[in-house]
């Protein structure tokens, strides 16, 4: 199917809504991210985490443009865009920088502490930019960095983002799968302060590539930013079910929700949890072997399934 609208394939859209709620409940995401909560929130399956980072950035950009125009009607769009600035840790994935390039905005790399982005460093960067007449609008918080699987302090950065009206996007591309295990959920502390969250079931949850799960607290900013509604795409059910073409960069889309449906039905939550725990256990065992061998040393704390080690 080419499931860009509900009418093009009702099953494609409706199964995706249901699967994203199943997955959100498995992770114990705050209710406001779920379609079943009856609020604005909901999930969508993107192709990759880099796509999700860009979609969130474009939603945040549209939101901030509208807010600033209301405050300064005399400013034109180019003036506002020239002042926008986003933030990420110096440990963030290169795709975050790329999202800034594609979105046409300045992105500041904030120095991390022990590989983690802390709230005070983010606050300092934001206050410096405000003093320079810039407009902070977006920050990416990484849970499980590529370099060392470090976890930015979402609980601290979320408070700072909310205080300064900055969109907080949480990128948990690899490590997010582990949040199906209750013992790792403390690493998600502060998720209720985020505006969007993404992880890749195709990385560590036995789902075929491509399947990148993204949740938005208020999808209307993304929907309005991407909404071009020609007559030939209109249908009678508009508004009652999501038209996912407004939630993503491409127009057409595949039936990705089927992949999630089959994996969740075949394995069940307990088997998927066992799979994650087994890998984390392997990493811990291997980390212990490195520590016991005088020729090797650990370059970073062992997190999840990642061991950073080197020959002395």
CATH superfamily of the largest domain: Type I PLP-dependent aspartate aminotransferase-like (Major domain)
Outline type: globular
How is the main sheet built? 7 strands, mixed
Helix content range: 40-55%
Order of strands in the sheet with the most strands?
Answer: 1-7-6-5-4-2-3
Category by helix and strand content: alpha/beta
Please report the distance between the alpha carbons of the first and last residues: 54 Å
- What is the CATH class designation of the largest domain? Alpha Beta
The arrangement of helices and strands along the chain is HEHHEHEHEHEEHEHHEE
Separate helix tally: 9
Give me the count of strands: 9
Number of domains: 2
What percentage of the residues does DSSP assign to strands (E)? 5-15%
Mean pLDDT: 93
